[in-house]
Amino acid sequence: MKNLFKVLIFVLILVGIAYLLFNSFKDVLLQDDPVNPEAPVVVSPENTPATNPEILSTKDAFENTSNEASPVEESGFTCDMAEPIIHNLYSLRLEDKPISEAMTYISENPDIPTDFKAFAEGLWNTPKDKLEPEEKVVDKFIKSCSKLN
Q1: Cα angle vertex 80, ends 75, 83, to 5°?
Q2: Which of 52, 80, 101, 147 is the most exposed place for a label (fewest CB within 10 A)?
Q3: What's the CA dihedral at 119, 80, 84, 90 to 10 degrees?
Q4: Using H for helix, E for strand and C for coil, what is the string for 88-132?
């Protein structure tokens, strides 16, 4: 019986110590913020009269815009120049070369617009068995390119 009382007293002491430790570290462990008795006051802005926007002339409005020519048009790149590029990229893809080799091919040749990087990424992201025939891709490209010019 004495042992039972000793065990119960020991358990009560352990529970008390755990309770005190938990309460002392509760704010740190649970990150409770102390209660702020002062609630923030919302201040409404003063009523300011609305002003009419300044009217710009057409010259002022479009003064800093770029010209209509794209970098590809300025470079003199034509639709027919794309065929060998597409052929080379297709060859690299069918030979299971890494995409880095295709990117190197595009970046080392200054005549190739950087827009072909997106084409190469799409080519490498497509499984080989789902690729369309090269001739079909070239025809589609030239048709859509000629519509733009």
Answers
A1: 110
A2: 52
A3: 30
A4: HHHHHHHCCCCHHHHHHHHHHCCCCCCCHHHHHHHHHHCCHHHCC
**Residue 124 contacts residue 94 (beta carbons within 8 Å):** no
CB 119 within 8 A of CB 72: no
Residues 36-61 pLDDT 10s: 666 666 666 677 666 777 777 777 76
Report the distance separating Cα 91 and Cα 99, nearest Å. 12
The length of the chain in residues reads 149
Q: What is the DSSP letter of 80?
A: G
Kindly report which listed range (19-33, 58-72, 93-107, 122-136) carries the lowest average pLDDT score: 58-72
Q: Which residues touch 145 (CB under 8 Å, ≥6 apart)?
A: 79, 82
Q: What share of the chain is helix, strand, coil (3-state, %, to 5)?
A: 60, 0, 40
d(CA 117, CA 104): 10
